[in-house]
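FORM 12-B: Structure-to-Sequence Request
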């Protein structure tokens, strides 16, 4: 299995079966928080139903997953510890780190010793982190878990996560700005798509990996965050395969691409850290690939590296900008 496949599936296969924030996610967090003023306690309920109390807005924060790290950075909070720093810098460079945080190990197995040495006042994790790891982390500092993904409400879930982290860090005003940037980008992008005569156009977004010389393809099907944002732009998600309940992700191979409509605009993302481009390089001489109508028509585009497909509103703002500029240029 390639490094990239391990990186991507580490998040994608994580179970999202934990309870979502009761009621309306961050609404409960806002209702139960006493205040975000420095020196006064903040009480929050996380995605698992656990309640934590902070002495004030957290400033020394560790992130065990890239989506929570991205939200911290977008909120103007420099994390003191980040899981797989190099991986974040490669896969979420659209929302770049502005400091030099300690590397706390892998996303699935953070180093307890490293985290403890940082003396954080808050650890951000997801509902995909093992219960044993969470239990041990709680011995170091309060742990706030978010729901990584929910195929029934991806955009709302991403927004809820941002709001919850903002409440914990006292950055609600900045959260409002981040959310507005996303909604403005969607509105402007939808208008640009319509002006270009592309409203209702079929778009299929995927990523790919090479394993033992074979290209595996992951469709971002209905219920994926990318798929939902694509549809918000007035475009049609051309995938008909069924994705998983958490991430809306499916699997297929090059033959599976023959099921896409002939007029599909095929968009994909990969990363230079993995070397060869699965589509432009490895499939370049594949007869099935080259015979696809959208390939023959040149309607295949690689989006810029570093837009994290499982991120928050900030990453999705970058995705919107990339899709609109690619389709309307």
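FORM 12-B RESPONSE
SEQUENCE OUT:
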């Amino acid at each position: 299995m390639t490094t990239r496949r391990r990186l991507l599936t580490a998040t994608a296969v994580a179970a999202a079966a934990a309870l979502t924030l009761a009621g309306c996610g961050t609404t409960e967090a806002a209702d139960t928080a006493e205040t975000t003023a420095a020196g006064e306690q903040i009480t929050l309920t996380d995605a698992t139903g656990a309640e934590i109390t902070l002495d004030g807005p957290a400033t020394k924060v560790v992130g065990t997953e890239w989506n929570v790290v991205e939200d911290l950075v977008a909120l103007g909070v420099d994390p003191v510890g980040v899981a797989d720093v190099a991986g974040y810098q490669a896969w979420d460079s659209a929302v770049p780190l502005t400091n030099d945080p300690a590397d706390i190990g892998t996303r699935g197995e953070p180093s307890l010793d490293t985290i403890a040495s940082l003396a954080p006042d808050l650890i951000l994790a997801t509902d995909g982190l093992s219960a044993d790891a969470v239990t041990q982390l709680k011995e170091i500092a309060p742990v706030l878990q978010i729901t990584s993904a929910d195929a029934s409400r991806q955009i709302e879930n991403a927004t809820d996560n941002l709001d919850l982290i903002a409440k914990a860090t006292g950055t609600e005003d900045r959260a409002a700005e981040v959310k507005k940037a996303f909604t403005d980008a969607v509105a402007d992008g939808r208008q640009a798509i319509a002006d270009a005569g592309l409203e209702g156009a079929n778009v299929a977004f995927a990523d790919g990996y090479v394993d033992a010389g074979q290209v595996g393809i992951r469709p971002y099907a209905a219920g994926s965050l990318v798929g939902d944002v694509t549809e918000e732009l007035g475009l049609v998600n051309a995938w008909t395969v069924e994705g998983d309940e958490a991430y809306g992700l499916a699997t297929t191979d090059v033959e599976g691409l023959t099921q896409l409509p002939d007029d599909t605009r095929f968009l994909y993302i990969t990363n230079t850290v993995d070397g060869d481009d699965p589509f432009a390089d490895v499939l370049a001489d594949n007869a099935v690939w080259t015979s696809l109508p959208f390939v023959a028509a040149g309607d295949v585009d690689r989006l810029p590296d570093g837009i994290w497909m499982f991120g928050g509103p900030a990453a999705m703002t970058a995705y919107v900008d990339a899709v609109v500029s690619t389709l309307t240029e």
